[in-house]
UniProtKB/TrEMBL annotation:
A GO biological process held by the record: regulation of DNA-templated transcription
Stated name of the protein: Bifunctional ligase/repressor BirA
Location of this fragment in the whole protein: 81 to 323 of 323
Keywords associated with the record: ATP-binding, Biotin, DNA-binding, Ligase, Nucleotide-binding, Repressor, Transcription, Transcription regulation
EC nos: 6.3.4.15
Organism annotation: Piscibacillus halophilus
Lineage of the species this protein comes from: Bacteria, Bacillati, Bacillota, Bacilli, Bacillales
Length: 243
């Protein structure tokens, strides 16, 4: 990843730039990174704050051969494990909150947004967007969700060189994708579970109604497995969890 690395000062969203490039035929591994995003986007059409130079905001174009569209969501989990591994190597303890939030000391540090373009049951390309709050020196720098968001600096006291972190992360991401393509999801699944947030703990699941369940792990598809009060196991593909 990052054989083609495109730096931008300010963009609406690196996702949009990456989609445009992919449509024009940009190759697998092209990465777009920006110092600032004015319309950073998160999952479920949420806004993702991406202030100038405070974090890593980047999108990678992936053209995974032989990955069916329904397996594409697993790539989000693959990326989450790669990021958690990177931080673990730097003695920073990260938890992954299903499906794709990275948590540190109970607060949100990073998020992943995977967008897929598929035609006739074949993946054309995937845009893997990653946002990591790095050098915010003050909680007030977060405008929304101030109490639930944090940066690596706030948690570790260190300042980070964004270019270096990006370089190292891309190596980690590439290695993890290779593992996924070569050996499938089962190894990733094990690794994912070793980082799982609230594994074995009770949470509230919101489907049509709200019910309590114990987090059990993920299945071979990457769906969250929970156990209800009657010991019945449920596989959740898109439920909202009130963690
Ligand atoms: C989420 O937690 O909901 C996902 C957040 C993803 C943010 C990244 S930052 C780089 C890329 N460009 C965007 O506009 N979003 C993703």
């Amino acid at each position: 990843l990052g054989q083609q690395l495109i730096y931008q000062e300010q963009v609406a969203s690196t996702q949009i730039v990456a989609h445009d490039l992919a449509r024009e035929g940009a190759s697998h591994g092209t990465v777009v990174v920006a110092r600032e995003q004015t319309k950073g986007r998160g999952r479920m059409r949420r806004y993702w704050e991406s202030k100038d130079g405070l974090g890593l905001w980047f999108s990678s174009i992936l053209r995974p051969s032989g990955v069916e569209p329904k397996r594409a969501s697993q790539l989000t989990l693959v990326a989450a494990v790669a990021i958690a591994d990177y931080f673990a190597k730097n003695n920073i303890d990260i938890k992954i909150k299903w499906p794709n939030d990275l948590f540190i000391n109970g607060k949100k540090l990073a998020g992943i947004l995977t967008e897929m373009q598929a035609e006739q049951d074949a993946v054309q390309y995937i845009i893997l967007g990653i946002g990591i709050n790095m050098n915010h020196q003050n909680q007030d720098l977060f405008e929304s969700d101030r109490n639930k968001s944090t940066s690596l600096h706030l948690e570790s006291g260190q300042m980070f060189n964004l270019n270096q972190v990006l370089k190292d992360l891309l190596v980690e991401l590439e290695a993890k994708f290779d593992l996924f393509i070569d050996e499938g999801f089962s190894k990733i699944k094990q690794q994912w579970e070793s980082y799982a947030y609230k594994l074995g703990e009770w949470v509230t699941v919101r489907t049509q109604e709200e019910w309590d369940a114990k987090v059990f792990g993920i299945d071979e598809d990457g769906a969250l497995m929970v156990m209800d009060e009657n010991d019945k196991i449920h596989h959740l593909y898109s439920a909202e969890i009130l963690w």
